[in-house]
Amino acid sequence: MHDLIVLGGGPAGLTATMYAVQKRLDALLITRDLGGKTNYMLQLPFVERHMVINGDEILNRFSREIEYLDFVRVMENAEKITAIDGGYEITTTGGGTHQTRALIVATGAKGQLLNVPGEHEFMMRGLCYSALSYAQLFIDRDVVVIGDGDLALRGVAELARNARNVKLVAALPNDLDTPIGRRLRTLPQIEFLEGFQVVEVKGDTYARSVVVKGTDGERELFADAIFVERDLIPRTQLVAHLVTLDKKGHIKINSRNETNSPGVYAAGDVTDTFSEQVLVSIGEGAKAALSAYEYLLKTEPAKQMA
Ligand SMILES: Cc1cc2nc3c(=O)[nH]c(=O)nc-3n(C[C@H](O)[C@H](O)[C@H](O)COP(=O)(O)OP(=O)(O)OC[C@H]3O[C@@H](n4cnc5c(N)ncnc54)[C@H](O)[C@@H]3O)c2cc1C
After folding, report:
1. Which fold has domain 2-110+232-305?
2. What's the pTM?
3. Pocket of ligand 1 contains residue 281 by CB under 6 Å
4. Within 13 A of 229's CA, how many CA atoms are on the CB side?
5. Which tens digits make up the pLDDT trace of 72-101?
6. C-beta 11 within 6 A of ligand 1
């Protein structure tokens, strides 16, 4: 039985694994990839790598170390988790089973796609999925934000601090009536387009416009970048039977990254922690590993301690 299994190899899971390895725990990382969402980088003619904080130096280092330590990782999809005597058992796509005393869930959250023509063509080339990460690059530029929830409002608020014009395209206006939403309506550089559906993303090398459809027909909105800011869907199906989730499906954790199940910790975008950012996930992964380490010390079988 392993001391610790980390599920997910994004910033949270990579950091948790490296902490665990450095503490000489018998740790195993089960993941589909190394890097998670940091493998997606926005490309635009005016964007250079040093202009965004994406923690890539530290994450590349962690990925390289985990690639080298091949006994530490299983590059597969985790399919099932079962509580067993003294811990948990994880079954992977390849049919393997792995038992552990403690578990860190760092499976991230899935962005919701538009599913319209042009989306795949321009994904990350002018069409982006994280306004919070790139807002500072849009001084005096025109942007479109697509979404109708809290994430879209937060994205608009960030972009409006820099951009010349921000258009919010919201299919359903219901969730926009919040303190942030009401405040944003008073700002002259923001336009709310409510009840509009996205029909197509158009461009050349980069996305240049988005076609939207409302009750009066279609409109083409030109912009320097288009942000899809639909609420993320936390990947929690695997653990929904084990831990308490909030109403949006995030794993509820306390300040030590503990869930309500003994020995189960969670970190990063999959949790109800504030803000989906690489640096936040790195810190949360480190905290989860330290908490799991303490748990293991307290529950270590007597013969291992001798
Ligand atoms: C397009 C885009 C650009 C961004 N740019 C920035 C930026 O510049 N700066 C910034 O701070 N933030 C940025 N972000 C946000 C940032 O990427 C996320 O907050 C961060 O990656 C979350 O880390 P995480 O480890 O919680 O999850 P993720 O990065 O989502 O990683 C989850 C991991 O879990 C694995 N996984 C999931 N389910 C399973 C399973 N069942 N079995 C095995 N493995 C599984 C996945 O393969 C993946 O490795 C961006 C986000 C997007 C979408």
Report:
1. FAD/NAD(P)-binding domain (3.50.50)
2. 0.90
3. yes
4. 31
5. 999 999 999 999 999 999 999 989 999 999
6. yes
